[in-house]
Amino acid sequence: MPLKIGLTYDLESDYPLNPASAPDANSEFDSSRTIRSVKEGIYENGYELVDIGNFENLLNIRKTLRSKADLVFNIAEGIKGRNREAQVPQLLEYLNIPYVGSDALTMSLTLDKIITKQILISYKIPTPNYFSYQESGFKNINLKFPLIVKPRWEGSSMAITSESVVKTKQNLIGRVNYIKEKYRQPALVEEFINGSEFTVSVIGNSPPQALIPMKVILNGNEMRDKIFDNSYIRTENIAYIPIAGNNILEAKLRDLAIKTYDAVGCLDFARVDFRVNKQGGIFVLEINPLPALNKKDALAVSAKYTGWSFSLLLEKIIKAALNRYRNN
């Protein structure tokens, strides 16, 4: 009998955008094309697919799920708050059902950019200098402008626009207040790193494997003083090309990706984003334990350059989870 794999996910079409919400509030959710590709990949590997969908659907079938699925492939983003990515893992842990991907704790702490940075710093992993906006204001700003302002717990470049990079205290205050009012959460303020942007996908456990680092190309050019803002999430203007001609940088990026992956307790798969400045300094921007599984996104593209088809990539991730549960 083929293994039965449940698939949990959030579709854009499941959540009509509330006019009162931020304009990019649904950016984290997947397109029907992405989910169709994942389903096809699961079938191609010989598994039986159990189409679950979002957290509410999972709740509705929780009492019978153990008889329907041997393993759940979770790519659900969740609905609200800094623990939203932990919703599905937490319920699956309660139900004692094995699942693909990082556990609830890792999902929560990696979505919170401040907590993630605190962990990186404790492991001596380089990350941009930062502070978190507090109600007391900006009396002691020890960072160098330009700065970049981000929501504390969002992904998919939510709230990141050309106005996110600020060069004056006045603009900083305005942007922080915008995050607070529109996204209803604190802001992370970082020193902006002018330089090349790289992303490294990591697959597996004990030990994990870092795939080839991919340079992020925006409109045909390196990032430098540009930012990956939310408008590029659904466009063709972003490209990923494998690093070439710099074996030392490649080795450092792979090493730091695995150290970051291990530091926050990722499992099975994740993606680590970097900036490298003009002096060669490497900085971890963030780690995403739920990287996009769009065939044109960084994870699938790096797998392609590793010699893996999309279905083989999914098989590598599934096998990593299965081996992990068998060894526990």
TrEMBL record:
Record-level Gene Ontology MF annotations: ATP binding; D-alanine-D-alanine ligase activity; metal ion binding
Keyword flag Metal-binding: no
A Gene Ontology biological process term: regulation of cell shape
GO CC terms in record: cytoplasm
Superkingdom of origin organism: Bacteria
Intracellular or extracellular location(s): Cytoplasm
InterPro entries, per database record: ATP-grasp, ATP_grasp_subdomain_1, D-Ala_lig_Van_CS, Dala_Dala_lig_C, PreATP-grasp_dom_sf
Keyword vocabulary terms for this entry: ATP-binding, Cell shape, Cell wall biogenesis/degradation, Cytoplasm, Ligase, Nucleotide-binding, Peptidoglycan synthesis
Residue ranges constituting the ATP-grasp domain according to the UniProt record: 117-319
Family: Belongs to the D-alanine--D-alanine ligase family.
Name of the protein in question: ATP-grasp domain-containing protein
Species per Swiss-Prot/TrEMBL record: Candidatus Gottesmanbacteria bacterium RIFCSPHIGHO2_01_FULL_40_15
